[in-house]
Structure formats: structure tokens, C-alpha cells
Specification:
By secondary structure, the chain is mainly β. Helix content is about 5%, strand content about 45%.
Length: about 180
Amino acid sequence: MRKEDCFYLGKIVSKYSYKGEVLVKIETDEPEIYENMESVLIAMKGGNLVPFFIDRCRLHKSLLLRIDFEEVKDEPAADRIMNHQLFLPLSMLPKLEGDKFYFHEITGFTVEDAVHGNIGTITGVNDTTSQAIFEVEKEGKQLLIPITDEIFIGLDREKKIVKVSTPSGLVELYMG
């Protein structure tokens, strides 16, 4: 399976026991939905995603999963996967309702501004900064629009439209 067809679940951050159990810091608001997984994909050296099957998986503290893999039964085996990233197929993401969305699902959506109308198409979302940003392209120009409660109004999944109300001057800054 390719990384593009998966979502990042978390990273193995430490060993839990001498029997190979590991702790995974997961990136989610609802860690409990991942407690009963049967397998995950681990990004190995070179970037290959390798399936690992799970004997037991349970929540440990707030955002940690304690995982006992079938293939990892001692400390040296746990050391080999330490600090590796875990992925799951996109099909395993829970469906979101209303105005909640996953960043990957809105790529290609049209951005409609309350004042300017159609201001382009979302080419991606930059979430490496402290504030996530819509990357929007129109007529070869790129607009960067912060994703805040004040700017994001809503979305229409059927029509593939993200509705925003940009601050005065933002669109002109990029399009002018």
C-alpha cells in the first residue's frame, strides 16, 4: 500500500515491557476508536509500509496506545521499530459530519469567499505551522488562507465547496 492511500496515525515513542510491547503517541481527538485494531502499517527504513499484526492494543494514559505486535516479542525487535511512524488506510478514517473535515478530503474543493466569490481551488493544507493554512490556487497564483473559526464558514461536500470570509485585503494581496 502507498503512503498516499494512508493517513498518519502516530509514532512509536518508547518500549513498554521487555516482552516487546511499545507505546505509540497517536495524533487524534478520539484515541479510543483505535483500541481494537487488528493491524497497522509501519513505515520502515526506505519508506516502505509494512503491515504489522496486533495481538493486543489498548489505551495507555491519554494519547498513548500500548501495542503488543505478533512479530515483536522481545526488546531487540522493539528496538528495530522504535521511532517509526504508523499509518492506516484512508478507508479506516471515521466519517465526519457537518463542517468537520479531514485535510486530505478537501483537496480539489472550490473556495468561495463571502465577498469575492470563487477565489480558487484548494491544492492542499499546510499544517506544519502553528496555524493550519488552506493552500488555494487560481489562475496560476497561490493564496494562503488561515483556517480559523473567524475565516472558515462551512463546507458543502456534495458541491465540493469550502466557504470562507477572508479579512479585508487578504485576497487582493495575492490577486492584485
